[in-house]
Amino acid sequence: MRNLIALFACSFVMLSANASEPPAAKAASDAKKTAEAAAKLAAELSKPAKAIEKPAADKADKAEKAEKGAAAHAPLIEKPSIDKSLAEKPPKAVPSAATADRVAAAVSASEDEAQVDLSVKIAERLAEMRAKQAARAAAAAKARKAAEARRKKEAAIAAAPKISNHWDYDGEFGPDNWGKINPAWAQCGSGKRQSPIDIRDGMKVNLDEIDFDYRPASFSEIDNGHTVQVNVGAGNVMHVGGERYELQQFHFHRPSEEKVNGKGTEMVIHLVHRGPRGKLAVVAVLLERGKANEAIQLVWNNIPLEKGQLGTPDADLDPLELLPNRREYYTYMGSLTEPPCTENVLWIVLKQPMTASPAQMALFSRLYPLNARPLQDSGGRMVKESN
Ligand SMILES: [Zn+2]
User: Fold this and answer.
1) What is the C-alpha to C-alpha distance for residues 279 and 19, in angstroms, rounded to an integer?
2) Segments in 237-316 forming alpha helices (H)
3) pLDDT for 311-359, tens place per residue?
4) pTM: predicted TM-score of the whole model, two decimal places
5) What pLDDT is recorded for position 184?
6) Per DSSP, what are the bridge partners of residue 347?
7) pLDDT bucket at 269, cuts 50 / 70 / 90
């Protein structure tokens, strides 16, 4: 029994020591120590097991003897007055040596039982402690793994450019940062042919006349969070430079993005066309205060109540009403003036401004007081203008 207690104490000390070690050292020594402990326990448990076998056999033997003795003496107790000869031999007459044997056997049996019980309890306790230790080690390993994964993820996020589809006209998501917000918008920051530019020193030449083949068409419109955009039905076409461009949509900026000799206007309309091989051509119509514009009023009348909601008014819009009578223009190669700032866009800025009423101007300014990209470096780009 002492052996078992010593084993229990030893194992407990070992397990406690393991538990107090630093996680890394603990993990390294866990397997070895657990194996040693298991070997010791097996060795120790196998010894008492042998010892137990014998006493168990003795016990069975002795118990049998004790039973026989009891059976022999039973009639003495039950019928003392009937069997006279036996009555003369009271229980006291049982040899004292046999009693001592029985007592010794009983004591020995109970001690054996206690030893077996204790060894079982110790084994159970050790198993329980090992299970707890293994669970603690597993939990610690899991936590370390999770922390490492978290650290790696954070490092990756910090190293990678922040990708977003949100942009704005000021603050963190403003024009200075468009190129950094999304890799697909890199040209906004690094492009060499960006728009808008301050149009000046144009080369006066005989430019092609633009043939606007516009007509009333159905339309849909949306407040897309950056401007009010009108999508125009098919069939509105512009011919310039021998190529055909179809009007896709038009939208508004306040103030005008383009400047001519440093001077802008209160608003501008951009008419976006798609040409051969997806090439884009944008016609800019500058807007000044003056007479109300019917097409603009039709657009304002049908602005959807909710941002991002597409409205499909039951009416036709004539884009010709957005164009001035005179069609002289400036032209240069530039880009879209909002992300993704795609280059190779043909810009046509009509020289004659159109007008919108103060009320029409005021209405848009309530939605978008400022939605214009600042001027970009022209980088010595060629600007041509009509004679
Ligand atoms: Zn625009």
Assistant:
1) 71
2) 294-301
3) 999 999 999 999 999 999 999 999 999 999 999 999 999 999 999 999 9
4) 0.61
5) 95
6) 282, 332
7) very high
> Is residue 175 within a helix (H) or strand (E), and if so which, with residue range?
none
- Residues 67-82: tens digit of each pLDDT: 444 444 444 444 444 4
18 CA from centroid of ligand 1 (Å): 70
Q: How far is the CA of 12 from the centre of ligand 1 (A)?
A: 77
* Beta bridge partners of residue 386, listed in sequence order: 205
CA–centroid distance, 267 to ligand 1, in Å, is 11
Label residue 43 by pLDDT band (50, 70, 90).
low
Task: Give the C-alpha distances (Å, rounded to integers) separating 132 from 19, 128, 224, 334.
Answer: 10, 6, 59, 70
Angle between helices 358-367 and 294-301 (to 10 degrees): 40
* Residue-wise DSSP of 71-120: HHHHHHHH-TTT-HHHHTS-GGGS-HHHHHHHHHHHHHHHHHHHHHHHHH
Neighbours of ion ligand 1 (CB under 5 A): 270
* Cα of 358 from ligand 1 centre, angstroms: 21
The percent of the chain in helix, strand and coil, each rounded to the nearest 5, is: 50, 20, 30
Q: Measure 306 CA to ligand 1 centroid, in angstroms.
A: 21
- Structural domains of the chain sorted by starting position, each given as residue range(s) with its CATH number in brackets: 2-159 (no CATH), 164-190 (no CATH), 193-386 (3.10.200.10)
The single-letter code of the amino acid at 108 is S
Query: What is residue 29's three-state secondary structure?
Result: helix
For residue 269, the CA-to-ligand 1 centroid distance in Å is 7
CA of 251 to the centre of ligand 1 (A): 6
DSSP 259: E
376 CA to centre of ligand 1 in angstroms: 14
Q: What is the 205 CA–ligand 1 centroid distance (Å)?
A: 26
Tokens of 31: 């397997």
User: In 3D, which of 266, 241, 248, 263 has the Cα closest to residue 333?
Assistant: 241
**Predicted local confidence at residue 123, as pLDDT:** 87
Length of the chain: 387
Q: How far is the CA of 270 from the centre of ligand 1 (A)?
A: 5
Give the alpha-carbon dihedral of 283, 288, 293, 297, to 10 degrees: 90
Q: Which residues contact 188 (CB under 8 A, 6 or more apart)?
A: 175, 178, 179, 194, 339, 340, 341
Distance 309 CA to ligand 1 centre (A): 19
